[in-house]
Records
---
Amino acid sequence: MTSRNFRPNRRSVLGGMGAVGLSFGLPGTGRAAEGTVNFYNWDTYIGETTLAQFTDATGVKVQYDLFADNEELFAKFRNGNPGYDLIVPTNDFVERFIVADLLEEIDHAKIPNLANIDPAFADPAHDPGRKYSVPYMWGTIGIGYRKSAVSTPPTSWADLYTSEEYAGRIALLGEPTTVFQMAFKLMGKSMNDWSDENLAAAEAMLIAQKKNITAFAPDNGQDLLLAGEVDLAMEWNGDVLQVMEEDDDIGYVVPKEGTMVWEDDLCIPKGAPNPDGAHALINHILDAEQGAEIADFIYYATPNAAARTLMDAEYTENPAIFPAGEAMEKSEVSIFSGQETLAKIDAAWTRVRAAG
Amino acid sequence: MEHYRQNLRAFAAFFVPSAGWLLVFFVVPLAIIFVYSVSETISLTEIKTTWTFENYARLLEPEILTLFWRSLWLAGISTVICLCVGYPVALVIATAPAKVKPWLLLLIILPFWTNLLIRTYALLNILGTRGRLNGLLEWIWTQGDRALTFIGLGAYDLIGEDFEPITFLGRWSGVIIGLVYVHLPFAILPIYASLEKLDRSYLEASLDLGAGQWRTFRSILLPMTMAGVMTAAIITFIPMLGSFLTPALLGRGQVDMIANVIERQFKGANELPFGSAMSLFLLYVTFIILAIQSFAASRGSRRGIK
């Protein structure tokens, strides 16, 4: 979910830069003057006027920087906060930040607009009681595909992981955790069961399939799909929605074995220079109208129930944004697996990447 | 010239800033990396220095050796191509009229005015299966197919029934093209410099005395510009060995080199000690290459063609 650049006119090369580990966003160190909130977010993951309206309403300026992926975000904070007040990690990374004791507790009293959030999001497994996080957006991973290039639409992760049918036309994500987890789903296992047998089986599956895979895309699978370089791409739903708007021939499906349901959260890192400003900005983002403007622009699913009531059916009834049915019932949330598992995952991933 | 002890103040004025720079931006970071490389990851954010050699032992895991080996031979082949392409280009520039020479040199240097990332994205656009290069090849194929049909051979599919685009991205070929493209100027410039310094009368003498063009190149020109060729080889090979961006983008995750694994240790794997050990190992390899080169160079100059 590296590049959240939904609208084509908003696209920048920055997502791609981040995808290969470069990011030119300067940390806000030393600029945290009175009345500035340093907000560190994904690319194109906010409404067009959300931040300007916040400054107009409160007089607090927003210093807005972009990061490209969760791993980069964590790497920047592991040795201390470089000067940010508000960050947007994904649920399993929220857990990672909590385990590493890098997050400030959220003061619910300062965020009255929390009442707008769908109660289903009140007590998630990754942050019981929402002590450290406020839900921002959620989504799924699925298969984006070119309708005219497939005889029947793909329905299973097997189409990507084991089938010969689409040899040379497949892009997988370049992120090891997710790629292994979807292999686990295909094997009928829980995606949070990192047993050695599961990992070894998934590794063997990927090494065998590697010759049929065109790219382990650093989150530009949707671009490869749009350019016609591949016909099937494992991608984050919002990224596929983005290219579906440019090209009617592209579809999105959540495979029948189920998928990962992820959630990005607003969090205040320890050592934030302006926690009050961060709370005020969270409250502003959670406002019903602001939330609707953001969701309408970035086209990810919002947990803001009040905002959803303000939006049209094209958004609220879009199956690619709010998927339903059996596949969703089999879906899971990724749980942070611990440092030792990270090393294990990387070793297996290196063997996959070195093969062939 | 004065001995530095006689003018300590002037000496200090030059020495302190440069030594300070080296200390802060070279020695200290390298020392930190070294300490990391003999440490253990004990939690998400904590690293404990235990003076272990485990991280270095992990370099012997087969997949790491495979990736080191792949980096070596990809960089090796690309270096050879750089030299083979770079030498004639340098020769053309060196022998060009004085008026044209600066313009040719400018053309070589011009790509540096564009960021490497942008140039690599341009290569992605050119080398894709639906890219410009395959577009050109398809056009040539179509013309050929038409010509064959015109002379009545169309039914035999002599050049294939349909145009088959060539896959570069995600293959060794694409990464090698990228490495050569990025590093070629570094090969041309030192060879050009050594050709410039060369006394042309040696070549005339060789030709006058009956040696052919090839013999003159092999026995006179090449040995006398060998220093430039060696420099070119070193300054293309070493950065290629640690190349990150080119395999990351053009290799599409199918042709990882060692730098891609190192990057993951500092991000996803969160294994700074192992990443540090690999970085240092790459540095040691570089030192060994440089040592061999300077050894060879000193032997060469002693034996020397004078």
---
Amino acid sequence: MATMKRTIRESSGDRLFMIVVYTILTLVLIAVIYPLIYIVSSSISSPQAVTSGKVWLWPVDISFQGFKTLLATPQIITGYGNSLFYTAVGTFISVALTVMIAYPLSRKTFFGRNALMMLITFTMIFSGGLIPTYMVVKELHMIDTRWALLIPNAIWVWQVIIARSFFLSSIPEELIEASEMDGCSDLRFIWSVVLPLSKPILAVLVLMYAVGQWNAYFDALIYLKSADLFPLQLVLRSIIIQNNSSGLMDAMKMVERQQLAELLKYALIVVATLPVLIIYPFVQRYFVQGMLVGSVKG
Amino acid sequence: MQGCERTLGGIALNAEIVAEKPVQGTRPSRRRSGTAIRSFKKHWQLYLLVLPPVLFFLIFKYYPMLNAVLAFKDYNVIKGIWGSPWVGMRNFRLFFENPIFWDLIKNTIFLSGYLLLAGFPIPLLLALMLNEVRSGKFKRLVQMVTFAPYFISTVVMVSMIMLFLAPRLGFVNVLLNNMGLDSINFLGEPGMFRSIYVWSDIWQTAGYTAVIYLAALSGIDPTLYEAAKVDGASRAQKIFHVDLPGILPTIVIVLILNVGNVMAIGFEKVYLLQNPLNLVNSEIISTYVYSIGLLNANYSFATAVGLFNSVINLILLVLVNSLAKRFSNNSLW
């Protein structure tokens, strides 16, 4: 009924306006999705098709040679394993530390919460800089160890703010009072009341930290030297951006090697991005939720 | 209920203080320290809990700020940070007098200024257009697809740029060749660097930023739209007179954050896109700090450059924030 009314009332100017809006949005949609499809299609085409520019939208001469070669490359497997490790352990550490500070900051009877909050947010707008931070990590003997990727950037201030405002708005004061009346300790209260009530925010924290860890390369670039500790992103950088494919294929003819090297780049991109893009449609709403919680000022 | 609890607590703690020691000092301070003691006693578990995160901030965020005195010293590995001799402002003077100083400032400001000018309006337009779409399916599809590139890592993003723009095999150049044009070595052209950086960034983040505006748009009072409809407003008029004023606070906040971060433009992507050919335009302050400090091990000088950048950034953020406060009553703090 309502929609019918609207279509009748819609003026010709408005109709033209909507046509323009739909056209632009469709163009935006194509511009965003085309590069993604192109990458995936190239990764499952034959090496010859990729290097001769035959792939435009859909795969040509479907072959999985690229992926097979990747699976047979120790460098890639190590990188993948390392990235999985950093993501799993790093996310656990980050989420734990974030909750440990965000929850007390949300309690009104926690003395010093404002000072502590200021102490934390100040680090968002000012920092000692790259070199001084590097010196600290060096003093702690973390250079070239796995710890360097897990600890120095474990807490993101933004995540603390998001978690804190969630706790502030979703843990009712009455619940705290009732539990205090029953003689429930703070830790017990967190464990058996706060955490079960905070699954949505925990999901947001886990996802954001996990994606951040999986995609990070900067800390690995400055803190790591041994190739066997490198996360996948660094391996990717050396193969695609620095064009170091020498370790990948040894006994092959020059031409074949070049063609395969091109194909491998596409396959690598797919392999490195797939874990994130596969879970993305299922978790998108958590991300949006997280952003909205964070955008509430206070 | 809350007030009641506070009053009761206040009375109890006053009694406690009086019993412990004779009254001295002013009333408010007595009350304050009493609150602290009571809070420590009651919440000792919470204080225990915040200890590791607080240590994290002290060690990895505040201790480096102390280490930044390196900027005023001549670092010597054997003597360490505190044992090295003071040199006053020498490192800063060296930086300001270096011909590269103005190049770095120019490159940093031009790159982030371009990003700001092009990257600020596009997500806003995207959100306003999406908000007009009545078909839920199409709206969800566009939102989901445009949000997706946000999850692509910087390394993969730059890899894609390099593959697409490769001089011989990249599809952009193949397309140019097919149209009878010559290939362009995009990444080797210093003049192309900023456009490549900015437009790939917009491709990656416009959908993400649009979500913030869409959320603000959904919070606009629906009666305003009805009133506009009754007054015979067209869709375009509704956007200008209802949508935009309605989300102005959000726009201002996003703008403050963007302008305040002009000098803090990210190292990660610029560094990966750099090559000797485009360095004229692509060397910015943060990449310079990295190459001078960590690659050439000139710690003191690099710290000075980094500190200069941090301070400028802080001043900028405070300035923009106070301007926003004065003119629109919206601010970060």
